[in-house]
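Box 3.1 A note on notation
Throughout this textbook, protein chains are presented in two layers. The first layer is the amino acid sequence; the second is a token string describing backbone geometry. Keep the layers aligned when reading.
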Amino acid sequence: MSVPLRPPALLTAPLLVLALLLTGCASSGSTVPVGAPGQGAAGPESGAASVLRSSPSTEATPGPAEIPDLGPRTRAEIPEDARQAFVVTGEDEDANRSSAVLYSREDPAEGWVAVAGPWDAHNGMEGWTDHHVAGDLRSPKGVYSLTDAGGRLPDPGALLPYDEHPRFAVDGEGFYGEPLEGSFDYVVAINYNRTEGVTPLDRTRPLGLERGGGIWIHVDHGGPTQGCVSIPEARMEELLRTLDPELNPVIVMGDAETLGR
């Protein structure tokens, strides 16, 4: 005679406890969904599932580092062969105070790296402009090459061609009554409306005299300029010893909003 099987509902108490433990109940006796983190069978979020479904990393390799705070339009103006960039960022379009940082990308695969700065700087008394004209007291925005240097003092070890000349002497007062003497002890010509490869004293103006000229990086005299960029004397010496014609240096200059476009 066959013995009828006991229905599941009639499991004895010890067997019922064991069955509940095997289906993923918490130690308190309350039930949780199968596959919940840390409980029961391995689900999509469990460590076991991760091991079973692991695959090679598909993360993209980072590209070359860019100069911070420059927008795509400004970056596109920097020549491909430029390996040094002196970035001068004005506080706003009408401000005459700015900050300067020198960047280098000797290894294009690595991108741009800050090598000096930030340094306090001054620019034109009235700020910045997209269309500089003589006497507007604004500095021209844009990206310009740096090829020539000079000054009243002897060459401090410049890598760019350096013209020592007494004609760099200057006197008088600035906009705030500060003395201008010594402002041109060291200069680097910014190639805005000038001929490259000649002394900064050269007065050739390819765009015409009405578009101004003589825009330099020079020694700061404690106040705004006529349109140049000025930094402290010790920083000018450092800049002259660092700008390398083999690296095709440029200056990137303008107010922060414009440079960020």
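The CA atoms of residues 24 and 40 lie 4 Å apart. The chain has a mean pLDDT of 84.
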